[in-house]
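Q: Convert this sequence to structure tokens.
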Amino acid sequence: MDRRILSELGANPELTNKALASRLGLAESTCAYRLRALRDNGVITGRRLDVDVRALGYPLQAVIKVRLGSHSQEHVEKLYDELASTHGVIQAFHVAGADDFHLHVAVEDAEALRDFVLQHVTVHRVVRQTETQLVFELREGPGVLPRDPA
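A:
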């Protein structure tokens, strides 16, 4: 039943408890209980507002790859916290491999992208190298929730 609830909410996150219960053939109290349990167990972790960054004046998106010169836990955690909380960062990934971080950012134009890298990334002494890739198009994948409620 929980997977059916998640599937319905994945397709329409704005469903009210009443509408969700009706779609699943559940009592509203049962549906509310299951939703609360999913939140309490950390399966549903929050609610997100999805916005079109282009409509907000940030038409240029990029992925900035960041390599560090020092990998002490203190340096990594401090930089990660700073990068992830920087205006313009959509997602910040701490990754394995040749790079240490990947930043998905949205900015106004090429000059703003250059300024972002210089003012927020390479300004940190621990950063050894960056590589910036422009995003031509972004498509969301289906995720891990079942597509067809069963």
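The CA atoms of residues 56 and 108 lie 9 Å apart.
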